[in-house]
Amino acid sequence: MLRFEDIVFGPIRSRRLGASLGVNILPSKGKLCNFDCIYCECGWNRDGREDNRFPLLKDIKLALETRIAELSAKGEQLDSITFSGNGEPTLHPDFPSIIDLVLDLRNRYYPQAKVSVLSNATRVTHPEIVEALKKVDNPILKIDGPDDRTIKLMNIPSGHYRLDEIIEGLKSFDGDFILQTMFLKSPRLNLSSRSSLEGWMNIVRLLKPREVMVYTIDRETPEADLEKYTVEEMTEFVAPLIKEGFKIQIRG
Predict the structure, then answer these.
(1) Which CATH architecture has domain 8-251?
(2) What are the CA-CA distances from residue 129 to residues 78, 132, 147 (Å)?
(3) How many whole angstroms separate alpha carbon 204 and alpha carbon 10?
């Protein structure tokens, strides 16, 4: 399974974000997440317990500034500075300060680049996390299913999770965020059923995100027997939203 051992990695060519400099503010040799998604490229949470130490703010600053200054001096293209890595980035206790740090570095070295955060949206019930996410260009926030049952099977949340609370938290963005949704084939889930699709689309209609990213599995998954959907299949799933004027990005 994929693990990120460095705080800063890339730039890599992202199918969604272009030339993307990755930022991992999670343990370098393990995985730390409050989801345990059946499709996660980092594997199961139980397989990443050998390291649970967050990198320190000062080490994050040094790694980021060194790499961004180096790229700028070489004149390399950079489209996005992207928080991803070994789990859920908003779990870092200094997440709001880290966002401020990255925004400052972006403004100094790559003012045209976007700052993106890939998050499972579980902490949008925390005002300080919402405030930090609203500062970035691309808060990319996940809802993979129409109800708690689907999310329990697909994302396996740890601790308390209620989709209605997440939706309430996302309402505070007034649509200024990107909704990310995974579509996959599983023996235990029928994400393409009429009821599942309609329930998910109703959430999109309620939240009115400025963009929806629909994608499917692209790498090895921890749960066996998962299959990807084609771009054509996913386009058919979201056709009603496209007709209604929603901006939908579809990636196979």
Answers:
(1) Alpha-Beta Barrel (3.20)
(2) 25, 5, 23
(3) 32
What residue ranges do the domains of the chain occupy?
Answer: 8-251
Which residues are 211's β-sheet partners?
178
19: its two tokens: 């030339």
| pTM: predicted TM-score of the whole model, two decimal places | 0.92
Q: Is 90 exposed, middle or buried (0-12, 13-18, 19+ CB in 10 A)?
A: buried
DSSP 1-45: -----SSEEEEEEETTTEEEEEE--S-SSS-B-S---TT-TT--G
Other beta carbons within 10 angstroms of residue 86's beta carbon come to 25
Closest-CA residue to 125 (of 176, 160, 87, 97): 160
Per-residue confidence in pLDDT tens, the chain, 252 aa: 444 568 998 888 776 677 899 999 988 777 889 999 999 988 888 876 666 788 999 999 999 999 999 999 999 999 999 998 788 999 999 999 999 999 999 999 999 999 999 999 999 999 999 999 999 999 999 999 999 999 999 999 998 999 999 999 999 999 999 999 999 999 888 898 999 999 999 999 999 999 999 999 988 898 889 999 999 999 999 999 999 999 999 997
What are phi and psi for residue 8, nearest 5 degrees? -120, 135
**CA distances to 101, 105, 200, 205, 251 from 144, in Å:** 30, 32, 8, 15, 15
Helical segments of the chain, H only: 57-74, 95-109, 127-135, 148-154, 163-171, 194-207, 231-237, 239-243
- Local structure of 226: helix, strand or coil: coil
